[in-house]
Design goal:
13 helices; mainly alpha; single chain; globular; 63% helix; 225 residues
């Protein structure tokens, strides 16, 4: 049965896993121990798909995550989704909520041009998780033939001191490299990227099972000191 407005927190605590909470909280910065319940992601997604409203609190990590899932899973017109994202994105304060929500926004595939226009304000933001949100959205939905060059131009323009921005950019560039190394390799060879993103990108590529050993060895020699 759908999770009703007043039962969301009760439903979350019914699925609390203390051992998982203690493990998971070590992976997420900026979350106070008392603000994470400890609900596994598949369970959260199941609850998120059952929600009929997003009129519930934002206090716990899992509650914030459910707001993001609601935006992705609920049957809503695009304008309503964007209004909800306006409220949601500034509340993102960790990589997990950012990335899990981004992967849930499948409606983007049907509205790529309109959503890319909307995404511009986060691409231009100076806030860590707003920039990461934009970067992960490009990674998840815009590394296709139509938007590949646009995404690559944005990724190479990032100059940030934020670790989670740089890591997201490196992750996206690694995926872009696998899809079209002829376009991405020059960014590495010409040192077009910031030092941090450059080295993180090489590390990500060298970790990938989709890249041959010879290429990995060559890229290792391109690491910047």
């Amino acid at each position: 049965m759908p999770v009703k407005k007043m039962n969301v927190r009760e439903e979350l605590f019914k699925h609390q896993d203390i051992k998982y909470r203690d493990f998971h909280k070590k992976l997420i910065p900026n979350i106070k121990e008392e603000k994470i319940i400890g609900v596994r992601l598949p369970v959260l997604r199941k609850i998120g798909k059952s929600l009929k409203t997003c009129d519930f609190p934002w206090d716990y990590y899992e509650e914030v995550m459910l707001h993001g899932f609601y935006i992705g899973y609920a049957r809503l017109p695009l304008d309503k989704r964007l209004l909800l994202l306006d409220e949601f994105v500034p509340r993102i304060d960790n990589w997990a909520i950012c990335d899990c929500t981004a992967s849930t926004l499948k409606f983007i595939d049907k509205h790529k041009e309109d959503f890319l226009h909307y995404l511009g304000k986060y691409m231009k933001s100076d806030k860590e998780y707003e920039i990461r949100f934009a970067t992960v959205i490009l990674l998840d939905y815009y590394l296709d033939d139509v938007y590949f060059d646009f995404s690559l131009n944005y990724l190479k323009s990032i100059q940030s001191d934020f670790y989670y921005v740089n890591m997201a950019a490196a992750w996206a560039l690694c995926d872009a490299f696998v899809k079209d190394r002829e376009k991405v390799m020059p960014l590495i060879e010409n040192t077009s990227l910031s030092r941090e993103i450059h080295n993180m990108t090489i590390s990500k590529i060298r970790d990938s099972y989709r890249v041959d050993k010879e290429t990995k060895d060559y890229l290792k020699s391109r690491m910047r000191k």
